[in-house]
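Support reply, case 0932

Customer input (verbatim):
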Amino acid sequence: MPTRRTPLPDWVIAQRRDLGETIARYRKEAGLSQDQLADLIGKERRSVQRYERGERDPTYSDLVLIASELKVSVAALVGEAPAGR
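Our regenerated output:
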């Protein structure tokens, strides 16, 4: 995989961390382990760990699957208000 030419800005890293914390919170509220969520979305546990630690960005497809399994909207995961509000 090619290396980024420039490092990510701090605000992007902060939002990635926030996303990870949100995924972890909803996962725990759903009573799921990282292993269980990983199985439900077709990933390995370490992928879920990396998402939750803010080390990796989930693909959009994975984000949609995570939201579906956690019974929340993608907007709720990324901290956006629903459209029209």
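We compared this against your earlier run and they match. Two observations from our side: The mean pLDDT is 92. The chain is about 60% helix and 0% strand. Please reopen the case if you see a mismatch on your end.
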